[in-house]
Design goal:
elongated, 7 helices, 2 domains, mainly alpha
């Protein structure tokens, strides 16, 4: 069963989906390293994945993640503070570009 699920093609496909310069995992390996070295690593990776399926083994490290806080740009924070200071307390539809196509005004009825 593991041979049908894990093939060289399926591993190559999965590795090709990685964004190459995303942060590395807890092992310190960047996705680009796997992508560039795939021709050398492919046989070992296939053996590891097949063994995991065959024996029902899921390494603890594979379901451990590291979350890194990435602060928002200062301009976005300042815009939010500006809205709060002005007493709005929220971002209006006009600010988010979701304003209705046309809102009738009193001057429209005079036409």
């Amino acid at each position: 069963m593991a041979r049908k699920i894990v093939t060289e093609e399926s591993v190559r496909w999965a590795v090709s989906l990685f964004a190459p310069y995303k942060s590395p995992g807890i092992d310190g390996i960047f996705p680009a390293l796997l992508q560039k070295g795939l021709d050398i690593l492919i046989e070992t990776m296939v053996k590891i994945f097949r063994a995991c399926i065959t024996y029902g083994y899921n390494p603890v490290q594979w379901h451990t993640s590291r979350v890194v806080f990435v602060p928002k740009p200062v301009a976005a924070i300042m815009a939010l503070v500006s809205c709060i200071v002005k007493g709005q307390g929220f971002i209006s539809p006009v600010d988010t570009g979701r304003q209705r196509a046309h809102t009738p005004s009193p001057s429209d009825s005079q036409l």
